[in-house]
Specification:
This protein is of the alpha/beta class and 405 residues long. It has two domains: 175 residues, Rossmann fold, CATH 3.40.50; 216 residues, Rossmann fold (3-Layer(aba) Sandwich). The chain has 13 helices and 17 strands. The strands form three sheets. Strands 9-10-11-8-7-12-13-14 form an eight-stranded mixed beta sheet, sandwiched between helices. It has a seven-stranded mixed beta sheet with strand order 2-1-3-4-5-6-17, with helices on both faces. Helix 1 packs across helix 13.
Length: 405
């Protein structure tokens, strides 16, 4: 039996965590779910249904942790050791190239930590060395670090998905046969959503972008609406979707941004991704980037920023030459005034190169050399049997399958 200490929701961490609940339970591991947030019975029925998770079994597995069992926590690094039992394993990611002292102290309370690409191992190693030199962690044990490469989440795309026809029809009517670009994730500077808008503006091309940018922490669509309005975009039309209100913004060059309202069902999110011809994955720092894994699993081409986890796992997962789609980056201070305040650095994509690729792909919808392959078969790292086998190595603590800080 393991205690699975996780958030349960439809956001990135929540979906990632439920994917691992599914991996463990379907490969013979008994799981006790210890939610980080409150999960009343019936509150996530739709999400469990979309992920094909037995609802009764899931709700019945929720309970208090057994202190004598192993705990696997999937959460942010600065709180990764919040629940400790006989053995504690943390699974996290890093969006900057350094750790705060608080995050380093949390990691050093773990018996094992799992990360998904080599640079994350380097972050732990360099941060521990820095704080040990300052005597902050001099007497702290060294955590064993396990590298499980890849996005590490099974792509649950067994059935054709076409539940949001109205958004696709709207995008097709606005794009007039040209490429439909897509972007997803909560609105924030780290993901370079403002850069996307600025680049479209600067190109003076009638580009169409479908954006799922709602932010559950800061008021839904309020921030992208304000940014677009402040930069001269105007509301061209409104539409309703699943009871929510969406907006189409237009600039003076005929470009459109379709702001999709919050979507609760996972199947609807995947349906939206099928609308995209090209997904814009240009974050300055990314540890997993599940939307990119899901998009390429659906056969969507992507423009990808370098020096992030998603660039690494795509390169490792396919023989396809992704170099024409990768944006080089420069190392800059990680600062957005809210979540990141200069404690480390991230890698910002070069805007001029991004704009060049955006302009080329705008008119290249039907050019075969600009299309990526369907990755569903090539992202073999996402198979739940492989992930379960790798995690068994972590559970067993085999020294030849681990590296240390």
């Amino acid at each position: 039996m393991i205690n699975l200490h996780i958030p349960v929701n439809s956001l990135g961490f929540g979906l990632f965590s439920l994917a691992y609940y599914k991996i463990f339970t379907e490969t013979g591991t008994d799981v006790r779910v210890c939610p980080i947030n409150e999960v009343p019975r019936g509150s996530v029925d739709g999400l469990l249904e979309d992920l094909e998770i037995d609802k009764d079994k899931f709700y019945n597995s929720i309970g208090e942790p057994n202190k004598d069992d192993t705990t696997v926590t999937i959460w942010h690094p600065h709180e990764i050791a919040r629940l400790q039992t006989a053995r504690t394993i943390g699974y996290t990611h890093f969006e900057i190239d350094d750790l705060s002292l608080d995050a380093a102290k949390q990691i050093m309370k773990l018996d094992n930590i799992v990360v998904c690409y080599q640079d994350a191992v380097n972050v732990i190693r360099s941060s521990y060395a820095k704080y040990a030199a300052e005597a902050s962690l001099a007497d702290t044990k060294i955590t064993t670090v396990h590298l499980i490469e890849g996005p590490c989440v099974p792509l649950m795309l067994k059935k054709p998905i076409n539940t949001l026809k109205e958004v696709r029809e709207l995008a097709l009517s606005l794009s007039k046969g040209q490429t439909i670009f897509g972007s997803s994730g909560k609105w924030e500077v780290r993901k370079n959503h403002p850069m996307i808008i600025d680049s479209i503006d600067a190109l003076k091309l009638p580009i169409t972008l479908v954006a799922l940018w709602n932010n559950v922490f800061t008021g839904g669509l309020a921030e992208p609406i304000q940014y677009l309005t402040n930069h001269g975009w105007q509301i061209d039309q409104q539409f309703t979707l699943r009871g929510g209100l969406g907006y189409v913004f237009k600039n003076k060059h005929g470009a459109h941004v379709i702001l999709v309202p919050p979507i609760e069902r996972y199947r609807d999110v995947l349906s939206l991704y099928r609308t995209f011809d090209v997904y814009l994955a240009i974050s300055s720092g990314e540890g997993w980037d599940m939307p990119l894994a899901e998009c390429i699993g659906l056969g969507v081409t992507a423009i990808i920023s370098k020096n992030t986890a998603h660039n690494v796992y795509i390169q490792a997962s396919s023989s396809w030459d992704i170099s024409p789609f990768v944006i080089p980056c420069e190392r800059v201070l990680a600062y957005d005034g809210r979540w990141f305040k200069g404690e480390g650095c991230w890698f910002k994509p070069k805007e001029n190169i991004f704009m060049t690729k955006l302009a080329i792909m705008h008119t290249s919808k039907h050019d075969s050399h600009m299309r990526g392959p369907n990755f569903t078969s090539t992202l073999d790292l996402c198979k739940k049997e492989k992930l379960a086998a790798r995690f068994k190595e972590v559970f067993d603590g085999l020294p030849d399958n681990a590296v240390t800080t």
